Amino acid sequence: MATDSAPTQAGSLLGLMQDDYPLTIKYILDRARTVNGRATVASFDGEGLTRATYREVGDRVDRLCGALTTLGVQPGDRVATFMWNRQEHLEAYLGIPSMGAVLHTLNLRLFPEQLQYIVEHAQDRVVIIEDTLVPLLAPAVAELGIVEHFIVVGDGPVEGLTGQVHRYEELLAAAPESFAYPEIADDRTAAALCYTSGTTGNPKGVLYSHRSTVLHAVGECMADTFGICGRDTVLPVVPMFHANAWGLPYSSTLTGANLVMPGKFLQAEPLAKLITGERVTVAAGVPTIWLDLLRYADEYRPDLSSLRVVPCGGAAVPRVLLEGFRERHGLNVVQAWGMTETSPLGAVAHAPHDVDEAAAAEFRLRAGQVSPLVDVRIVDAEGEPMAWDGEASGEVEVRGPWIASRYYEDPTGDDKFHDGWLRTGDVASIDDRGYIRITDRSKDVIKSGGEWISSVDLENELMGHPDVLEAAVIAKPDERWTERPLACVVVRPGSDTDAEALAAYLSGRVAKWWEPDEYVLIPEVPKTSVGKFDKKALRARLESGELRGAAGDQS
Amino acid sequence: MATDSAPTQAGSLLGLMQDDYPLTIKYILDRARTVNGRATVASFDGEGLTRATYREVGDRVDRLCGALTTLGVQPGDRVATFMWNRQEHLEAYLGIPSMGAVLHTLNLRLFPEQLQYIVEHAQDRVVIIEDTLVPLLAPAVAELGIVEHFIVVGDGPVEGLTGQVHRYEELLAAAPESFAYPEIADDRTAAALCYTSGTTGNPKGVLYSHRSTVLHAVGECMADTFGICGRDTVLPVVPMFHANAWGLPYSSTLTGANLVMPGKFLQAEPLAKLITGERVTVAAGVPTIWLDLLRYADEYRPDLSSLRVVPCGGAAVPRVLLEGFRERHGLNVVQAWGMTETSPLGAVAHAPHDVDEAAAAEFRLRAGQVSPLVDVRIVDAEGEPMAWDGEASGEVEVRGPWIASRYYEDPTGDDKFHDGWLRTGDVASIDDRGYIRITDRSKDVIKSGGEWISSVDLENELMGHPDVLEAAVIAKPDERWTERPLACVVVRPGSDTDAEALAAYLSGRVAKWWEPDEYVLIPEVPKTSVGKFDKKALRARLESGELRGAAGDQS
């Protein structure tokens, strides 16, 4: 979006505004407990809902901060959480940054060795943990000797935890009623830390600042993104250990939207009941969750009419999901694009208001229109910016006030950042309205004869074959073309679909030169800890000679 | 809203986000011409509408910046505008700050001596002026010799202008197609300048920064304020020389809302026709404008159904206006509070969603609920913060990222700023939801026996008398009580309402000790240049012995 820019520095005259007024999570906390003091957070435990007003949450946050201070937590220290979405997690979200410490949300779904690496890398002095999750974390961190205090939410067993073990409610009861918050004069101060579960190398930490968190929360309240406001009731199905639950805990407390916390009950039936019972207006989560809910809704027809928008992200949103909810249930599922490094709001796929319904449906299938305050571009292999013509495809780079500038103490990730831009690793085209259409991940794209072949497009086409369960396409080194596509396909048990049949199926559906040179039938595509196709593992098998295929095309 | 805050500095650890990514008007310009390139600005000239897309506006902005550079405009220089709301004014809004210069919007309604003072104080090197307005400005600035270039929009006569005189369209036609914008690396750089027409002392300049302007624009897009978005068509009736037309030109170009510019045609009939014809969704202006439109709408029933919100501010909004539009036309007129020093968004009076209609009507009559990112408090005479109980009344102070920190080169205004807060001069109570109810201006409040009497409340009560046309209540020095109220009243010609009748009317309507000691019948309340009651003039008359009244109360 940038136009010509001369390298000169303009503006000897500074404005006379309160430009140094810090944008802090403490401001959100103060607004939550005063202006929005009547709004509520309701936490589901599988049986019923526990409710508290934001005013009550504020009082408990005071006590939490006092308790953590007593345990020795200092400004800048990392305090980790290991919890599902619940009121206590919200208290940690508001309190830990407000006391000048860093909220570190540990991902429950990581492998033990990843958790171990992360706790050690972050040097978490304190972990607030849900009792039922103790068995998941204890083995991973017991031997580290880094965590000095575990604060257990709930009355369950605490076996396996080392260091000092406290009960959350007991600590709060013993803490003073009020807390003298430190002044956070510099809003670039670290507020929260979240590690990405990358498919290469060690997890990388993104260290959010107060300023970036507040601006991101405000961004979500804009009518063109999610328009979170005081009339909303927000159900963050996305876990609070995934990119700050997309910022919804902050935008909700900033505006006085009620929060409904689903705990670990992420199945279609309990979610539908929460939506109906609490008259939820905004429910946000990944496609898998909403695909389940769609099947459930088709069968049981729960009352979902309170929903005004259903943000969906974390992976490409299938057409059946968007159109199924819209056509059969009148619901507005909206694709959003982002990543841990982008806080995560990067783009939102509302359709333009001036196109017909058929065109609108295509816009909704894109990753989204670049969000206000975010700047985006696509670049070619030489790093040169490419046109926004909806055709040219290049790596997506973003910058803006809530985009990461570097990983936390890990120079091995420095190559993701250059000249103020973040390389997202996504390959996409952008149209003249700023809608991003992702065609691939940059590390998965196949460079053939100087052109790019989209592995994602090939996979989508292959998965359209009735007998194909999974398809992952990777690059195979090629002397003449540099790389050529190799398709790893899982077929339905009992099916006799072979390489030749697949090649015949693809013929005419993609450009001739895109057709894979080889097909390998495999029993299962390997997956990462968060369930994505692990193409790194497939490439390793190819290198070791494990993957042997058949040519589908004899030409 | 602030709670305990210890004076220690927290956070040795800084986040790793792009906290130095500058928030600039150049970003808004770039987004307007790309992502929002199809949106349009339509300018009314009394006959028809001239339309341009934001893409076309962007191209013209490039030329404008090139032309101004050729005329010698440097970063930091002030470039003034003297125009109604129209496309060229929008081009100045986007271009002048983007080239690193300072957009100075001159108020057409000021007295010549005020204009002269302001142009000299701001040292405006260039003025962009509408041809029809030349006679208004020329006499005021001809002798100053400060303005080097006048750029005249339109083909009308230019008599009386000194310095070099250019035609806007000729300059643009001669300018290069592209412009190399300077990098504005520090977003605290000055972007715009607007003088307040205070009732005391010289006008004071508020110098907006890029950062404050962008954050304010984003604030207006939040669903809880005005929710400006890409589906909107915005009619700024508020002039672009009043506090940046409340920021609407920037929030509209940021989001791709269409703009409809009414020029000087601010009467009810043309406004109604613009609203109907352009399907305007947001129309913003002062109460006087909307009172006229209400009368017109009652009589002619124009189709105003496209309006989703009608922001109204600049003065207290009368109940008849709010309720008349709501009940008879189904329109959502929303009171907003702010001032030049607050960019101006300070509070918006949407009713809470959880109260009944009778209570909602009362909430809508307040100045509004403090806006997100703005921090507000009320303080007593000693500067001590007071409770938010809806009862206690004190001077309103605000702070936040779009609040002024000082006036431009005028230390005589320094007493308005202290410890990071702006003294607004408004006296109000605040309730526990952050709704502000203004009871007076601090300089007009009457201090009687250690308590405050609201001159505004007394005036409102007096103006409820069927024979009273205008009422202004001022403080009269009193030996025993410090001050006592004196009411200056204009009665309907031919009416025999006298002091005694007025005293009898007020009795029982206000507290006994609030009742004015004296009533003076005057032919007219003196007004300031912007039409507000000039109580300074009344107080001067009182001091000189010119005001002589009759006691209404013989007790």
What is the topological layout?
2 copies of one chain form a homodimer.
Chain A: E1 5-9, H1 25-33, E2 40-44, E3 49-53, H2 54-70, E4 78-82, H3 87-98, E5 102-105, H4 112-122, E6 124-130, H5 134-141, E7 149-153, E8 164-167, H6 168-174, E9 181-183, E10 190-196, E11 204-209, H7 210-221, E12 233-236, H8 248-255, E13 258-261, H9 268-278, E14 282-284, H10 287-300, E15 310-312, H11 319-329, E16 333-337, E17 347-348, H12 357-364, E18 368-370, E19 375-379, E20 394-399, E21 417-418, E22 421-430, E23 435-441, E24 446-448, E25 451-453, H13 455-463, E26 468-478, E27 482-491, H14 499-506, E28 518-521, H15 535-543
Helix pairs in contact in A: 1-2, 1-3, 1-8, 2-3, 2-6, 4-5, 7-8, 9-10, 10-11
Model description:
The first copy, chain A, has 555 residues and is an alpha/beta fold. Helices cover 28% and strands 25% of the residues of chain A. In chain A, the strands form 5 sheets. In chain A, strands 15, 16, 17, 18, 19, 20, 21, 22 and 23 form a 9-stranded mixed beta sheet that branches. In chain A, strands 8-7-6-4-5-10-11 form a 7-stranded mixed beta sheet, with helices on both faces. In chain A, strand 10 and strand 11 (204-209) form a beta hairpin. In chain A, helix 2 (54-70) packs across helix 6. The two termini of chain A are 44 Å apart. Chains A, B: GO terms for molecular function: ligase activity, forming carbon-sulfur bonds. Chains A, B: InterPro entries: AMP-bd_C (IPR025110), AMP-bd_C_sf (IPR045851), AMP-binding_CS (IPR020845), AMP-dep_synth/lig_dom (IPR000873), ANL_N_sf (IPR042099), ATP-dep_AMP-bd_enzyme (IPR050237).
